[in-house]
Design goal:
two-stranded antiparallel sheet; alpha+beta; elongated
Length: about 110
């Protein structure tokens, strides 16, 4: 059903234009109509670009997907920033124990 609605919404302007041509044979589209259509197109493209730029995350941020917890659904969000180096950081286990004493390995 959603595909039918999307198809109808996509084809509606073409159908309206076909009806207009049927009832106005030989009459050209006015310059003001074309100018308004181009202005609307420019505003639409500009709005899409602005929205895309304003909603972007930091390229170094980590995306945390949505999750279900006991309290409900936690929406997705950006987490802490990653390392900005060329290589990812590797979390290595500590060489010291809980008492601060060194364990094995090179000094």
């Amino acid at each position: 059903m959603p595909y039918l609605i999307e198809t109808a919404l996509f084809l509606a302007p073409f159908a309206i234009y076909a009806v207009w041509l049927r009832f106005n044979p030989g009459r050209a589209v006015g310059t003001h109509v074309l100018a308004l259509a181009l202005i609307g197109l420019a505003i639409s493209i500009g709005g899409a670009v602005w929205y895309g730029l304003s909603r972007s995350m930091d390229p170094y941020a980590i995306y945390v997907p949505p999750s279900v917890t006991e309290g409900g659904i936690v929406p997705g969000h950006s987490g802490d920033a990653r390392s900005r180096g060329a290589w990812p950081t590797i979390n290595t286990p500590s060489r010291t124990g809980t008492d601060g004493e060194r364990r094995g390995g090179a000094p």
